[in-house]
Each structure stands twice: as structure tokens, then as C-alpha cells.
UniProtKB/TrEMBL annotation:
<keyword id="KW-0479">Metal-binding</keyword>
<dbReference type="InterPro" id="IPR029057">
    <property type="entry name" value="PRTase-like"/>
</dbReference>
<dbReference type="GO" id="GO:0004422">
    <property type="term" value="F:hypoxanthine phosphoribosyltransferase activity"/>
</dbReference>
<dbReference type="InterPro" id="IPR005904">
    <property type="entry name" value="Hxn_phspho_trans"/>
</dbReference>
<dbReference type="GO" id="GO:0005829">
    <property type="term" value="C:cytosol"/>
</dbReference>
<dbReference type="GO" id="GO:0000287">
    <property type="term" value="F:magnesium ion binding"/>
</dbReference>
<dbReference type="GO" id="GO:0046100">
    <property type="term" value="P:hypoxanthine metabolic process"/>
</dbReference>
<comment type="pathway">
    <text>Purine metabolism; GMP biosynthesis via salvage pathway; GMP from guanine: step 1/1.</text>
</comment>
<keyword id="KW-0808">Transferase</keyword>
<comment type="similarity">
    <text>Belongs to the purine/pyrimidine phosphoribosyltransferase family.</text>
</comment>
<dbReference type="GO" id="GO:0006178">
    <property type="term" value="P:guanine salvage"/>
</dbReference>
<dbReference type="GO" id="GO:0006166">
    <property type="term" value="P:purine ribonucleoside salvage"/>
</dbReference>
<dbReference type="InterPro" id="IPR050408">
    <property type="entry name" value="HGPRT"/>
</dbReference>
<dbReference type="GO" id="GO:0032263">
    <property type="term" value="P:GMP salvage"/>
</dbReference>
<dbReference type="InterPro" id="IPR000836">
    <property type="entry name" value="PRTase_dom"/>
</dbReference>
<protein>
    <recommendedName>
        <fullName>Hypoxanthine phosphoribosyltransferase</fullName>
        <ecNumber>2.4.2.8</ecNumber>
    </recommendedName>
</protein>
<dbReference type="GO" id="GO:0000166">
    <property type="term" value="F:nucleotide binding"/>
</dbReference>
Length: 182
């Protein structure tokens, strides 16, 4: 039977590797915010898997909220134009905010989101991202928690999509070229 996995050229990070790293980050976050828990802000839709697996490894009375922004549409390149599709339901004034992301590629999405959230008067804003592509950076962003730095390849899975599909792959992988070409 045809399988979603047939479209994957190679697995970059296995489900086990991701889980291990998120366990480390969760412990680090719990220690850093022991005095006052942050509100976790997940960036829909890509951060859904990271949020679900990271939040369960942060042993604090934390809250979760979501923003939906999109800069990629259905293509593979960032347009740089960020749209808010859904805003927070929480007032973050005087709160510690920890943004949870799946990937920092060009950095344009987060750089925009950072200044948007900072304008709301939070106590602090930090970032936790599972993946970062140092070679693709178009803006420098200070990131407190990074799971893995990865090469500049188009990756999918574990929340990351190509044309809205492949988010449900349990690992992070690189698609076969044939998937793009036809
Ligand atoms: C992807 C990804 C990050 C962003 C990173 O989101 O989830 O949010 O792009 O790219 P950048 O650093 O170049 O800005 P996307 O806009 O595709 O929306 P999605 O999360 O719904 O897939
Ligand atoms: Mn995203
Ligand atoms: Mg996307």
C-alpha cells in the first residue's frame, strides 16, 4: 500500500532524537523559570507537535496560548509578509512569554512576532525553537532555546509542512525531489 513515508528521501531527526532533546529543553526551561512560570505561546500551525511534546516536559504551572501567523502560504520560500490569522486570547502585560516554534528559517516570522509581542508590555519574551537553519538567516535573532541547528534543506514532518501536508510525519525528514517536481 502507498505510504506517506515513501515521499521521504531521508530522516534527519528521528522521533526518539526529538523527544530526547525536548526532554532536555523542558528541564532547562523549568529550572530557568522556577520563580515565575512563563506563558507558552505556540505559533500555529507548525509548532503544534513541539508545543504538545515540550509542554508535557516542563514541570511548572505554565499556561499555553496560540497565535497563528503565516508567511509561507503554499510555497517553499518565505514571502516576508506576515499575516496574523489568530491572535492570543491572553493579556501578556507583565508576563514572561516563551514563544514555541518548530523552525527558524529566514527568521522573518519570528523577528516580526518578537516586535509584535514586545509592544504589548510583557515582562520578558524568549524563544524556544526545535530547529534552526543558520545558513538561511536573513535577520539575526537572539534565541534562548534551540533543539538542533540543521542544514539549509527543505524539511518536513513533526509539524513542518510542504503545501500543508506532511505535518503528521512523526520525524523530521527531507522530501524526495520528485515530490516537488510533479
Ligand atoms: C513556517 C514555520 C515557521 C516559519 C519559519 O511557518 O513554521 O513559523 O515558517 O520561517 P522563517 O524563519 O523564514 O520566517 P509557515 O509560515 O509556513 O506557517 P505554518 O506554521 O502554518 O506552516
Ligand atoms: Mn509556522
Ligand atoms: Mg508552513
Amino acid at each position: 500500500a502507498p505510504s506517506l513515508h515513501d515521499d521521504v528521501e531521508k530522516v534527519l531527526l528521528s522521533a526518539e532524537e526529538i523527544e530526547q532533546r525536548l526532554t532536555e529543553l523542558g528541564a532547562q526551561i523549568a529550572a530557568d523559570y522556577a520563580e515565575e512560570p512563563p506563558i507558552l505561546v505556540g505559533v500555529l500551525k507548525g509548532a503544534v507537535m513541539v508545543m504538545a511534546d515540550l509542554a508535557r516536559r516542563i514541570d511548572l504551572r505554565t499556561e499555553m496560548d496560540w497565535m497563528a501567523v503565516s508567511s509561507y502560504g503554499s510555497g517553499t520560500k518565505s514571502s516576508g509578509v506576515v499575516r496574523i490569522l489568530k491572535d492570543l486570547g491572553t493579556d501578556i502585560t507583565d508576563r514572561h512569554v516563551l514563544i514555541v516554534e518548530d523552525i527558524i528559517d529566514s527568521g522573518l516570522t519570528l523577528s516580526w512576532l518578537l516586535s509584535n509581542l514586545r509592544s504589548r508590555g510583557p515582562r520578558s519574551v524568549e524563544i524556544c525553537t526545535l530547529l534552526r537553519k543558520p545558513e538561511a538567516a536573513r535577520v539575526e535573532i537572539d534565541v534562548r532555546y534551540v533543539g538542533y541547528d540543521i542544514p539549509n534543506e527543505f524539511v518536513v514532518g513533526y509539524g513542518l509542512d510542504f503545501a500543508e501536508t506532511y505535518r503528521n510525519l512523526p520525524y523530521v525528514g527531507v522530501l524526495k525531489r520528485s515530490v516537488y517536481e510533479d
